Structure formats: C-alpha cells, structure tokens
Amino acid sequence: MPGTPLALFALNATRALGSHVAQALGVALSAHEEREFEDGEHKARPLESVRGRDAYVLQSLYADGAQSANDKLVRQLFFLGCLRDAGAARVTAVLPYLAYARKDARTQPRDPVTTRYVAQLFEAVGADRVVVLEAHNPAAFQNAFRCRTEHLTTTRLFAEHFAVLLRDAPSIAVVSPDAGGVKRAERLRQALGRRLGREIGLGFLEKARAKGVMRGGRLVGEVGGAVVVILDDLIGTGGTLVHAASACKAAGAARIYTAATHGLFVGGTTALLDAAEIESIAITDSVPPFRLAPELAARRLTVLPVAPLLAEAIRRLHTDGSLVELLEG
Question: Which pLDDT score is estimated for 107?
Fold first, then answer.
C-alpha cells in the first residue's frame, strides 16, 4: 500500500527470524507484548498504534519444545484479529512454515481437508493476505483460501547454492522423490541450468504412501553417472529422501545431494543423517534444526537464510510491486 506506513511484527516464537527480516528490510520490528496466564491462556497486543498502517505478522508454525503448532497457530490468529480491531488498514500473515499443509485432500474415507479449515480460520479473523514459503502443495494452498495468497519458493536459494557447489560436475540431474514434486524439481532444474549455462537432467520416483507406509519407488529419468540433487519441500523423518537416494544410487548416480526447504527432523532421522550415499543436506532456517545435536547439524547440514527473501517479498507487497522475479528463481 504505497504511502501507508508499514508495521512489521514477529511473535516471540519467531523473534530471531523476525529480527533478521527487519534488518534486511531496513526497519525496526514493531513493539508488542505477549502475556501468559496461569491456566495456559494467553494474550498479545501491539504496543504502538497500527491505525491506518499496513501490518505484517511473522510466525513460523512448527512445533518446538515450548509451543505446539496449535499454540503458534492460535497466537497468530488472535494477534491478527487484534490488529484488525485496532484499525490496521491491511493485515498480512507471513508464515515461513505453514502447519497442516500436508493434509490438503481426502485420501481415505471421511478424511479431513485440514488445509481448508486452517484457511477459514485466517479468513475469520480478518486476514487480508497470507504469505507462505514453499507450501507442500501450492495449488491446494492457493485454492483453500478466499483471501489473497502469495506462495514464495526457495528455488533461487537452492539454485545459487548448488550452482557454486556443483559448478565442476560434468553431469547433473534434479530428482523429485515423488510425482507431486515434479514442478518444484523442474523449477530448480531450469534455474540451475541458467546459472551453469548447460542442460540439467530431471527425474522423479513413483511413490505412494498410505497409513504411514511407503510403497513403490520406480525411478523415472536417467541419472546414471550424474551428480543428483534430490529436492523436497520438507524433511519429516527423512525416510522419503533416504528411499529416493537409495533408488538413485542403484540407478548409477555418481554423487547425491539432498535439499528441502523445511527441516523438521522428527521421529528419529538417524537413517537420513547417517546415509552414506548422501553427501550433504541443504535446508533453510524457516524451521531451525533445533532437534539435532549442534555438532551433527554442523557436519551434515547447510542452512540457507530465508530472511532476505521474506524481506524483499514484504517490501514489494507493501508497495504493491510484483513478486514474479522472486518466483522465477
């Protein structure tokens, strides 16, 4: 909203990332307070006027040792509603990691479509727009909301990282661990090809999952003799990436790297972190790797910062600019 003052808030659970975004944006975080009550209830309010301002609220909705994903979601919703009641001209939720994005369709009888329910909550508190970084299924995310949505990708971050890391590799292929991620892999393939000035291969695995059990695994695409980058949107237990790496190795891949925007590392990721066929794992700090021992994270992970991307997106949205260049990678 050109000419309208900007207000950038980061709730306490995402304060560290919010400080980096504010620094990249060249503004100070707007002041707010969060209070806890003895029975577990809470409240949050801005400590400065937001009347007539273009307000952005940063909160990454992953569970940690202090707050569950539900806690963070409710706190975000309440604060957005509070800003609306306090007269903000526009209210935007900035969610580096969106909880419940994986359950976006009915795959079993009487399944919930949780992504749509979450969307209705944001709409109910008056959010004008929701910005998400690398949603599990971008089409499902965009279709679930009736307010405006912006889907940011990490294509550029990973393309820049791997263009340096693999500049001397004679043959490269980007592989999606399932058919649903082919478009994500294709974006990275194109961006990496532009940076390196040569053709990059593409592949994917046929995979199905039901009741937590993974089935299938036929590799589609040629990876023999190539350096492979396996790209996913998130790492849960890491089983999907281990499965994909094994398939690529069996198909003759020379070296294997993995990348995912959101590193959750839940439920025993030993197989992924110890997988000899995987050279390294690249993630972003949309979710800090707090579940891993620091020495293990330092040895196995490359963590790419998302603050510059989020800051530039907010800058462009505030001035009603275009995000197309950010999305192209």
Answer: 85
The whole-chain average pLDDT of the chain stands at 94
Least confident of 114-123, 184-193, 292-301: 292-301
User: Six-digit token pair at 269?
Assistant: 């990721």
Structure tokens at 241: 């990436």
- Tally the domains of the chain: 2
Return the CATH number at 281. Answer: 3.40.50.2020
Express as a percent the part of the chain with pLDDT over 70: 96
Q: Which residues are catalytic?
A: 207
| Same domain assignment for residues 19 and 115 | yes
Domain span at residue 182 reads 155-304
Mean per-residue pLDDT for 113-141?
95
| Judgement on whether residues 23 and 141 belong to the same structural domain of the protein | yes
Residues 6+ apart with CB under 8 A from 286: 17, 60, 96, 97, 133, 134, 261, 262, 306
211 has pLDDT over 60: no
Query: How many residues comprise the chain?
Result: 329
Long-range CB pairs of 143-146 (<8 Å, 24+ gap) are 144/104, 144/113, 144/115, 144/116, 144/118, 144/119, 145/119, 146/119
Q: Give the per-residue pLDDT at 296.
A: 86
Tell me: do 298 and 185 sit in the same domain: yes
Strands 129-133 and 148-152 come out as parallel
Beta-carbon contacts of 174 under 8 Å, excluding residues fewer than 6 positions away, are 185, 186, 188, 189, 192, 200, 201, 202, 203, 228, 229, 231
Q: Is the pTM of this model over 0.85?
A: yes
In one-letter notation, the amino acid at residue 81 is G
Average pLDDT on 34-60 reads 97
- 166 and 284 part of one domain: yes
Contact 169, 257 (CB under 8 A): no
Query: Are residues 37 and 128 both part of a single domain?
Result: yes
CB atoms within 10 A of CB 201: 18
